[in-house]
């Protein structure tokens, strides 16, 4: 999802490849945060 948003932002503002890089990093961070939350939930059970 982050890559798609980054590509759309880049095409709209003509800022290639900065939007792609920024949203890729944000998307990766969000994914890792979700994995961390799931692991903590599993650990508590």
From TrEMBL:
<feature type="transmembrane region" description="Helical">
    <location>
        <begin position="18"/>
        <end position="36"/>
    </location>
</feature>
<dbReference type="InterPro" id="IPR032820">
    <property type="entry name" value="ATPase_put"/>
</dbReference>
<keyword id="KW-1133">Transmembrane helix</keyword>
<keyword id="KW-0812">Transmembrane</keyword>
<dbReference type="Pfam" id="PF09527">
    <property type="entry name" value="ATPase_gene1"/>
</dbReference>
<keyword id="KW-0472">Membrane</keyword>
<protein>
    <recommendedName>
        <fullName>ATP synthase protein I</fullName>
    </recommendedName>
</protein>
